[in-house]
Amino acid sequence: MSTAEMSSRPVSLGDAKAEQKVASPMRMALRRFRRHRGAMIGLVILIGVFVYIVGGSIVFSEADANFNDTSIRLSPPSIEHPFGTDRVGRDILARTIYGGQISLLIGLLAVLIEVSLGTAVGSLAGYYGGWVDSILMRFTEAMLSIPSLLLLLVMAKFFGGRISNIELFGRTFSGSVVVIILIIGLTSWMVLARIVRSTVLSIKEEEYITAARALGMPDRRIILSHILPNALASVIVAATLGIASAILSEAYISFLGLGVQAPTASWGNMLTEAQEFQIIANAPWYWFFPGLLILLTVMSINYVGDGLRDALDPRSDKKV
Fold first, then answer.
1. Is the separation of the CB atoms in 308 and 240 below 8 Å?
2. From CA 99, how far away is CA 272, in angstroms rounded?
3. What are the chain's domains?
4. Around Cβ 23, how many Cβ atoms within 10 Å?
5. Backbone phi and psi for residue 167, each to the nearest 5 degrees, phi listed first
6. 53/230 Cα distance (integer angstroms)
7. Which end of the chain is more exposed for a tag (fewer CB within 10 A), N or C?
8. Stated pTM of the model
9. What sign results for the dihedral spanned by CA atoms 93, 97, 100, 106?
10. Are the C-beta atoms of residues 95 and 102 closer than 8 Å to each other?
11. pLDDT tens per residue, range 207-258
């Protein structure tokens, strides 16, 4: 078939659908994300960390992570203990596996609370405006004026030790895990609320929102079906970056002795043990491996979040 014949051939419905599929916003976002080199590197590292902490639990049991043998305390890395042992002879490799599960669990659940509160407050304030907006935003600004780390420390000190150990999925979690999740989640939603509010303020002026109101659609349905889906990009990016922030916050307060308590291990309290017993210089493997895992996890999540921000921005001028 000649070029002229091809150009004169009518476009079929299948061709039109294929062209529409290629140009869909989701495919364009995915293409932008895949072309973001930092995001792809971060994704590979993040997948590696997940494989390490999930796959490692198949090889090592929680009993292995908590088993101690004081005769081999502070042993350097070896074939039997690739990451060495800690102050009571526990295997650091096994403890970083189970400690990583706790650190990521805290990050994910804390962000779930953050996203729920931030999205609810921001969408209600932006959609209704008036006195609702004034009350919610003044409360948000009051929360923002309190130093988050100070609030974390005070609340962790006050509530720490008040909740007994929890048995879940065959594992024993110290009550401090629940406290840390709640504290981080309840003290980190304010920035997201302001982001969602600003997004909702612009979306609610669109013509399709006006049409939905004119048709008598209830406010709850307008918010859930029309406004929040269009604000989802901002929420996803904030949630991704919030996981990294939650992991660091847990490490901060655990390092200060107010975070996750024994018998539950986390990357943060492993660093605390190395600092408390003044073995940072004498046994560098004690802090190096949990510190490296925190660094890799937080760095990779930030890279992925940066890639998502560029990919989900419809005004992105990157070539697709």
1. yes
2. 13
3. 28-69+80-312 (1.10.3720.10)
4. 10
5. -95, 120
6. 34
7. N
8. 0.80
9. negative
10. no
11. 888 888 888 888 888 888 888 888 888 888 888 888 888 888 888 877 777 7
